[in-house]
Specification:
The protein is α+β, with helices and mostly antiparallel strands and about 350 residues long. It has helices at about 1-20, 20-35, 40-45, 50-85, 105-115, 130-135, 175-185, 225-235, 290-295, 310-315, 335-340; strands at about 120-125, 130, 155-160, 165-170, 190-195, 210-220, 245-250, 255-265, 280-290, 305-310. The chain has a 7-stranded mixed sheet.
Length: about 350
């Protein structure tokens, strides 16, 4: 009986090694291990063997059965692998596409670098702040239109007895107040770049946008220092041929206040369809209002300063060689658009 088991096992192993398909393997399994298989028949005949030999024969049959099952599984794996398309593992792989920084992030890094050359320190303050920092300390009267619910996003939480309502900052100028309170004693030279929130949306406005706010406080700071800083930024960021001008304007937190214009990069100031008269509006600026200095406990008789706050998106859209007709396109998720930058 032992010889018959060994012979049957070797016979089956040889046929399994020669099998080429899963179907052949399945036929061999049925032939040897199925209900009426050759090895199964030996198991049925154990009852006819002398009792003292049954244990040894049973063990041999089980070992043969396990060997065949293992061999069938291994052969099936090899057949499955060889059936796949041939692959040369030495061929260099296809590298995954590497992304890049978003256009707005690129602009923020570039703006930060320009002002770092002038000694400005990059700071960041809350995007969710109190009314006092966003309006009261910046010389806004209680009934100012900017405090209307249709202009500013107010948050439905209990008001602070000291600072009033909580809001999403409509500008980066709250950073002026917080920086003056932090430093306490000038000189101060900061650039604050962060998100702002206003209830506006059209081709030139979005509810969420970015601003960069510059603030310089020291002794004997004048409009000359403001104009020099703006000119340096314009020539560095936009190109050496660009020039700026200041137009009188009104802002609550600066006096005197100015709108800053830059010469058109398309016509170089001659006038064209884009600019009409040779100039494009860049943003607001001015000398820090004495009331703002007082709110932060800085003596306006001893110190003066200037500030400016411009939209990152708008500023970058005016850069030479960039044509973006709609501000909202900057936040597109279309990869065909994003890959251009």
């Amino acid at each position: 009986m032992q010889e018959e088991i060994i012979s049957l096992k070797n016979e089956a192993l040889a046929q399994i090694m020669e099998a080429k398909t899963d179907e052949e393997l399945e036929n061999l399994r049925i032939s040897y291990l199925g209900r009426n298989g050759k090895l199964t028949e030996l198991i049925k005949n154990i009852k006819n063997i002398e009792p003292e030999k049954r244990g040894q024969v049973g063990t041999s049959i089980n070992e043969a059965k396990n060997t065949l099952l293992t061999s069938l599984a291994e052969r099936k794996n090899k057949i499955s692998v060889s059936a796949k398309v041939w692959f040369d593992s030495t061929i260099p792989g296809i590298k995954p596409e590497i992304g890049h920084l978003h256009l707005i992030t690129q602009a923020i890094e570039e703006i930060s670098k320009v002002f770092s050359h002038l000694g400005f320190s990059r700071v960041r303050y809350p995007e969710v702040d109190w009314d006092w920092f966003a309006f009261t300390a910046l010389n806004f009267p209680p009934n100012h239109p900017a405090r209307d619910d249709w202009e500013t996003f107010f948050i439905d939480v209990p008001e602070s007895p000291q600072y009033g309502k909580m809001l999403l900052t409509p500008h980066t100028s709250n950073g002026q107040v917080r920086e003056m309170q932090r430093i306490k004693t000038p000189p101060i030279r900061m650039i604050n770049i962060t998100k702002c929130y206003r209830r506006q949306i059209d081709i030139s406005h979005t509810p969420i946008f970015h601003q960069f706010e510059g603030l310089v406080i020291d002794k004997n700071i004048s409009v000359v220092n403001l104009k020099g800083t703006i000119d340096y930024f314009a020539k560095t960021f936009f190109g050496p041929e660009r020039v700026t001008r200041l137009r009188p304007y009104h802002f609550q937190f600066t006096e005197p206040s100015f709108e800053v214009d830059i010469s058109c990069g398309v016509c170089n100031g001659r006038g064209c369809r884009l600019c009409k008269a040779g100039w494009l509006e860049l943003g607001g600026a001015g000398m820090v209002h004495p009331n703002v200095l007082k709110s932060s406990k800085i003596n306006p008789d001893k110190y003066s300063g200037f500030a400016f706050g411009w939209g990152v998106e708008r500023t970058y859209m005016m850069k030479a060689g960039i044509s973006i007709p709609d501000l909202r396109m900057l936040y597109s998720t279309d990869l065909r658009y994003l890959r251009q930058f």
